[in-house]
Amino acid sequence: AVTDEMTNRFKKQPEVENIVTFAGFDLFSMSGKSSAGASFIVLKNWSERPNLENHSSYLAKKFMGIASSIK
């Protein structure tokens, strides 16, 4: 449920090309864990996001804010 909501919110971001999410996967221990999840976000090409605020380091902060707002 949370991973579905997060994936849907990220897909709506104009900088995102694609996203792959694994529910129940703990990236740190590389094992299954029911309270964990991992997402990999593919950004659009630089030609489609030329502004500085579209740099991955800025987007990481934006995406963390989106993820943290999910209850």
Q: What is the gist of this entry?
A:
The protein is an alpha+beta fold.
Describe the structure.
The protein is an alpha+beta fold and 71 residues long. It is built from two helices and two strands. It has helices at residues 2-11, 56-68; strands spanning 16-26, 31-43.
Descriptors for this entry?
two-stranded antiparallel ribbon; 71 residues; alpha+beta
Strand order of the largest sheet: 1-2
The poorly predicted ranges are: none
Q: What is the overall silhouette? A: elongated
- Helical segment tally? 2
Compute the number of strand runs: 2
Helix proportion range? 25-40%
Which structural class should the secondary elements be placed in? alpha+beta
Terminal Cα span: 10 Å
Determine the strand fraction and express it as a percent band: 25-35%
Question: Whole-number radius of gyration?
Answer: 13 Å
Task: Compile the SSE list and pairings.
Blueprint: H1 2-11, E1 16-26, E2 31-43, H2 56-68
Antiparallel strand pairs: 1-2
